[in-house]
């Protein structure tokens, strides 16, 4: 077997993955986690594309300080004539190597996107990338369910607020009824925030094990969002960055993708230094 025909062999190790960030309630940190996770994965040389699946009010571009030229609205307009290679022209490029399929520019365009188009777009993007990372709007809209069904892994994000936990519990029941529970990991974002509910209580409240913990860090996160630089790039030593990098390394551990799609590894700090010059 030569390296040229290696790409035609599909094993667990070489299958590209779709990772979806979902939540029952808005404002719990999906977008923050999506962009930082994507940059952490891309820094190891994996070709990584974010789909901004928050079709009405997507803010992935804001979090990455990118001005979208083309969006998913342009893709669906041309979808039947596009092959996976041509689709790359519709993506925005971030200096970290992450590519972005942006959300529509106006909320009223969101309803024009159908589940069938989501499936076609994901299939074509998977041919060109090792990881698709999807940032959803909160809740269980039809389009969100399409992404959740396509997902290999679902990160269901909550914080310690009562409303978030109550709705997460309800959402878990629905996802269970949809046979999606196997793919779910809970991320408790701001897990050490001031709250009557503590991180250690969440396991029993949600009836879920293996909870992932992300610390509260208002200063780092809000600055990062405002300047449009994910904190894993310029604050890699912070605990919050470490936790995200650990989850990222769990995702790509033991994965091997066809060589032609591997990008050069990039140090997170190196990227930041170049940006400042
Ligand atoms: N770990 C964290 N520590 C402190 N603030 C956070 C953290 N995660 C998110 N935030 C803040 O919470 C707000 C909502 O985050 P966002 O990612 O936009 O949520 P969502 O995408 O789920 O609506 C943002 O203002 C962000 O700065
Ligand atoms: Mg968001």
Automatic annotation (TrEMBL):
It comes from Clostridium ganghwense. Gene3D superfamilies: P-loop containing nucleotide triphosphate hydrolases. Pfam families: AAA_31. This is AAA family ATPase. It comes from the Bacteria. Residues 17-182 form the AAA domain. InterPro entries: AAA_dom, P-loop_NTPase, ParA/MinD_ATPase.
């Amino acid at each position: 077997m030569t390296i040229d025909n290696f790409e035609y062999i599909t094993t667990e190790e070489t299958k590209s993955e779709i990772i979806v960030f979902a939540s029952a309630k808005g404002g719990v940190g999906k977008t923050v986690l999506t962009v930082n996770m994507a940059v952490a994965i891309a820094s190891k040389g994996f070709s990584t594309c974010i789909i901004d699946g928050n079709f009405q009010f997507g803010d992935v571009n804001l979090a990455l300080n990118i001005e979208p030229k083309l969006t998913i609205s342009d893709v669906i307009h041309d979808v039947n004539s596009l092959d996976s290679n041509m689709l790359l022209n519709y993506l925005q490029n971030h200096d970290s190597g992450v590519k972005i399929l942006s959300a529509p520019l106006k909320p009223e365009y969101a309803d024009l996107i159908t589940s069938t188009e989501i499936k076609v777009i994901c299939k074509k993007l998977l041919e060109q990338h090792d990881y698709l990372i999807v940032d959803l709007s909160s809740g269980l809209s039809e389009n969100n369910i399409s992404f959740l069904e396509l997902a290999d892994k679902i990160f269901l994000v909550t914080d310690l607020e009562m409303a978030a936990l109550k709705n997460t519990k309800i959402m878990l029941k629905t996802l269970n009824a949809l046979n999606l529970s196997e793919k779910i990991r809970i991320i408790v974002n701001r897990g050490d925030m001031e709250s009557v509910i503590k991180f250690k209580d969440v396991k029993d409240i949600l009836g879920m094990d293996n909870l992932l913990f992300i610390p509260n860090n208002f200063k780092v996160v809000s600055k990062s969002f405002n300047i449009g630089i994910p904190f894993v790039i310029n604050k890699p030593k912070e605990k919050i960055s470490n936790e995200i990098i650990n989850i990222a390394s769990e995702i790509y551990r033991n994965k091997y993708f066809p060589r032609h799609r591997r990008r050069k590894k990039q140090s997170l700090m190196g990227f930041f230094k170049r940006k400042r010059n």
